[in-house]
Amino acid sequence: MTQAERRIYLIAALLKEQPQYANIEIPPTEREQKILLRSLFNIRMPLPIGGVFLEVQDEYLQEEIRRKGITDYHDLTPIENKTYLWQGDITMLRCGAIVNAANSQMLGCFCPNHGCIDNAIHTYAGVQLRAVCADIMNCQGHEEKTGGAKITPAFNLPCDYILHTVGPIVSGKLTPRDEALLESCYTSCLRLAEENSIKSVAFCCISTGEFHFPNEKAAEIAVNATERYREQNQSEIEVIFNVFKDADYQIYRELFR
Questions:
Q1: Rounded Cα–Cα distance for residues 163 and 140 (Å)
Q2: What are the CA-CA distances from residue 227 to residues 1, 78, 117, 166, 234 (Å)?
Q3: How far apart are CA 238 and CA 222, in angstroms?
Q4: What is the C-alpha R_g of the chain?
Q5: What is the pLDDT of residues 84-105, one digit of tens each?
Q6: Cys-Cys crosslink for 163: which of 84, 125, 189, 220, Cβ 3.0 to 4.6 Å?
Q7: Cβ(84)–Cβ(241) below 8 Å
Q8: Residues 84, 73 contacting (CB under 8 angstroms)
Q9: What order of strands is seen across the sheet that includes strand 97-102?
Q10: 3-class SS string, the chain
Q11: Beta bridge mates, 98
Q12: pLDDT band (50, 70, 90) for residue 151
């Protein structure tokens, strides 16, 4: 199959799963097809699916990521000993584990084509990720607590694992509890990584954006929490601070001056 043929196959299969979408026609352009496919990935519930679908999906997603361009963290220059700052799409980073800023349901973002990191990670990892997350949450029997973390395989992403953490949602004035919970996100991820022999972790800007944590304070907590963890635990784990926006890049640059 060509990449276009894979995309059309996946769209058709996902539409067939849901009778309410039976009248939707597959659009003619690549851009429109990609938008539709991502939407269908995003809204799909964690249901069983055939092996042929997964084979085609995996080939498609891996090729899409390859075309976007994979960055190996070993090729980056440390901003400090065992610490890196990288601006880019976290789904393109090859390292031990990337951190997903998840919600308490831990099932990914169901909003079609939403711009959050949770949406991007679930989209490019593949439908297997939501299914595994659903199994974890069913076994747990309750929503994930703020500041905790769970680990899953990365499936089609170039990293080995995904660490899912729920950051605090800031409503109104920032509180000491908000700050403590955000620090717990970093500590929980690092502890879980080391329990699974993971040597490098890429952190996104947890709780900023739609969770309204002030970017400057969030970055300060991130740097202090990771440094404190490594010092207290004599840890050699490598940390990559992944940012997407120019403003966040400048904030981290200032912290490492």
A1: 16
A2: 48, 14, 24, 20, 10
A3: 14
A4: 19
A5: 999 999 999 999 999 999 999 9
A6: 189
A7: yes
A8: yes
A9: 83-87, 238-243, 200-203, 97-102, 161-166, 149-153
A10: CCHHHHHHHHHHHHHHHCHHHCCCCCCCCHHHHHHHHHHHHHHCCCCCCCHHHHHHHHHHHHHHHHHHCCEEHHHCCCCECCEEEEECCHHHEECCEEEEEECCCCCCCCCCCCCCHHHHHHHHHCHHHHHHHHHHHHHHCCCCCCCCEEEEECCCCCCCEEEEEECCCCCCCCCHHHHHHHHHHHHHHHHHHHHCCCCEEEECCCCCHHHCCCHHHHHHHHHHHHHHHHHHCCCCCEEEEEECCHHHHHHHHHHCC
A11: 162, 202
A12: very high
Residue 176: count other Cβ atoms within 10 Å of its Cβ. 7
Is residue 131 a contact partner of residue 162, using CB atoms and an 8 Å limit?
no
CA 16 from chain centre, in angstroms, equals 28
| Cβ-contact 234, 190 below 8 angstroms | no
Closest CA to 156 of 194, 125, 114, 188: 125
**CA distance linking residue 235 with residue 44, whole number of Å:** 39
Given a contact cutoff of 8 angstroms between Cβ atoms, the answer to whether 240 and 203 are in contact is yes
pLDDT at 146 over 90: yes
